Amino acid sequence: QVQLVESGGGLVQPGGSLRLSCVASLSIFTFNAMAWYRQAPGKQRELVAGITSGGRQNYADSVKGRFTISRDFAKNTVYLQMDSLKPEDTAVYYCNGNSMVAYWGQGTQVTVSS
């Protein structure tokens, strides 16, 4: 059973930073792509950032220049560095891994508030 476990969420003031981590139960080489999604109350889940097996990255327009996705193959971990956080970034953030099947983590809450 493939598991993705997120951590690193929390409460942060506007303008602050957080780094989310997603640890996979198997080698992340397994996945064609990995990504971070988020879902705010009353809204649909949306793609925040993704990275392909070849290293190509893509970002939602709303986070370009503020968020960075990266990975550590030795640790089977994908990260999301979030800087200059805004209240509208408040959401539950989910890790996603795609091979033949899409796998999801349980989510981690990020709250940006003063």
Secondary structure blueprint with pairings:
Elements: E1 4-7, E2 10-12, E3 18-24, E4 33-39, E5 46-52, E6 57-59, E7 67-72, E8 77-82, E9 91-98, E10 102-104, E11 108-112
Parallel strand pairs: 2-11
Antiparallel strand pairs: 1-3, 3-8, 4-5, 4-9, 5-6, 7-8, 9-10, 9-11
Low-confidence stretches: none
Distance from N terminus to C terminus (CA atoms, Å) equals: 40 Å
Question: Gyration radius, to the nearest Å?
Answer: 13 Å
Overall morphology? globular
Mean pLDDT: 96
Number of strands: 11
Instruction: Report the biggest beta sheet as strand number plus sense, adding barrel if it closes.
Output: 7 strands, mixed
Structural notes for this entry:
The protein is mainly β and 114 residues long. It contains no helices and eleven strands. The strands form two sheets. Strands 2, 4, 5, 6, 9, 10 and 11 form a seven-stranded mixed β-sheet that branches. Strands 1-3-8-7 form a four-stranded antiparallel β-sheet, with no helix packed on it.
Keywords:
single chain; 114 residues; mainly beta; 7-stranded mixed sheet; 11 strands
